[in-house]
Amino acid sequence: MAMEMVFRWFGEGNDSVPLKYIQQIPGVKGIVWALHDISAGETWTLDRIHEVKNIADQHKFNIDVVESVNIHEDIKLGLPTRKKYIEAYKKTIENLSKVGVKVICYNFMPIFDWVRTDLFKESEDGSTALFYEKSKVENLKPEDLANQILENKEFTLPGWEPERLKQLAGLFEAYKNVSEEKLWENLQFFLEEIIPVAEKNDIKMAIHPDDPPWPIYGLPRIITNKKNLQRLLKIVDNPYNGLTLCSGSLGANPSNNIPEMIRDFGDRIYFAHIRNLKRFDNGDFIETSHKNSDGSLDIVEIVKAYHDIGFTGYARPDHGRHIWDEECRPGYGLNDRALGIMYLWGIWDSLTKVKEGASYVGN
Ligand code: CS2
Ligand code: MN
């Protein structure tokens, strides 16, 4: 038994990496996908879902994991209009179950998804990677930060959909009334509506942690640490309410102990995002290769924790650096993510061999 390795792919014409290359990465069983052109709050139609399924079938990939079905801001804000967006979300869950989707990854971050200040920060070895400079975030106005991230014109970035960001000023105004506690209430309301539908359709909801795991621009962020993950699992205590455990998102805060979380939340983790990053004393961080000695996270311990709990859920390498002159979406090239997968398999298979001794012949 092993973790089920999957690879994020943004769709035909929307990704620099062809599926036939992904097929050649050892042990990848499925693609992690989404209908990136559909706005939050709209239903994903069966026709559109089938288009992706047909392409995946041609390459013998499963489409078990969707990342993400985004949540409309009105749901996070708790506005009366949330009702219709929640109904659309339920319909999407039903449609996804018809093609056998097993896990939906989503997040509950107000306005901004992940935040970085430089998408191509150069390292000494000439590679580039996503970088977060704390003082820059503190000194930039939100609209300037958004513009900087949107400057990457080649691809639209998931979580940074231009149509949403056009309403930035209005959204900031609306969030003035949303404290952390209010955001928890709105999340609970959403989950109480959604989880029974997910259960009926046998799809696990797997919330992605906030990235970085602290508030920015006075906006509340709540999926940030162990205590809050515990709270999340309790507010609707049903196995269909689960986690995407993202080592890199949570790991930007040095007090988050990822291996401990894996051991404690084990059976409620449906999707593992495994990547490394290097933290600096001033609060900055840069994404690195998966190798232990390159970053601040102990990837070996993280994989060991998954191995020890007998994790058979979905796992992906999350982001990679940009290496060997590859031109790709920020964080989502082929080369470094493929290297990351081989590092993860190397650790996993070694642990299996140690555990099973000479009888090990592979999975
Ligand atoms: C993150 C997010 O894991 C990631 O790549 O950078 O964009 C993530 O996809 C969403 O927050 C999940 O909803
Ligand atoms: Mn992640």
Give a verbal description of the structure:
The chain has 363 residues and is an alpha/beta fold. The chain has one domain: TIM Barrel, CATH 3.20.20.150. The protein contains 14 helices and 12 strands. It has helices spanning 19-22, 46-58, 73-77, 82-97, 134-139, 142-150, 162-165, 168-175, 180-200, 226-235, 247-250, 258-265, 299-308, 335-356, and strands at residues 4-8, 28-33, 62-67, 103-106, 118-122, 128-132, 204-207, 241-246, 269-273, 277-279, 285-287, 314-316. An 8-stranded parallel barrel has the order 1-2-3-4-7-8-9-12. The longest helix is centred in the last third of the chain and has 22 residues, at 335-356. The protein starts with a strand and ends in a 7-residue tail after the last helix.
Helices, strands, pairings?
Elements (H helix, E strand, L loop, with lengths): L3 E5 L10 H4 L5 E6 L12 H13 L3 E6 L5 H5 L4 H16 L5 E4 L11 E5 L5 E5 L1 H6 L2 H9 L11 H4 L2 H8 L4 H21 L3 E4 L18 H10 L5 E6 H4 L7 H8 L3 E5 L3 E3 L5 E3 L11 H10 L5 E3 L18 H22 L7
Parallel strand pairs: 1-2, 1-12, 2-3, 3-4, 4-7, 7-8, 8-9, 9-12
Antiparallel strand pairs: 5-6, 6-11, 10-11
Helix pairs in contact: 4-9, 12-13, 13-14
This protein binds D-mannonic acid (CS2) and manganese (II) ion.
